[in-house]
Amino acid sequence: MAAFFKDKVSEAMKSSETMEVPGVGSMPMKDIVSKASEMQVRIKEVQDELMSRSFEGSTGGGSLIIVLNGKKEVLSITIVDKELLNNDNKLTSMIVSLINEIVSRIDTTTAEAINGVATEMGMPGLFNTQLNQ
Question: Is 60 helix (H, G, I), strand (E, B) or coil?
């Protein structure tokens, strides 16, 4: 199977055919394959950087602070207002809501970063559908 794709990429690199690229227009296949390869490397770099970042959120006027990493793993939960410990339902609701908010921010940040790579590479709008999901 890998040989099949390798052959197709080799054919495309030699081809003078063009293809319509969203947000760019018509491009020669060899340029598309070359840009796709560069973009793949750059997107991996951006993803690695985002995975190592911390994303923090707070709610209740700072009474609850949660930190996740770019992999969406919870790194810490800090309960500043100890009164929250007396109300399990409220605390649980705040934790769930805040984690969902942070996860959403991670998703948006990731989509924007990947779209930024496409723009850097002269292919703006290539991944815009990911932002609208």
Answer: coil
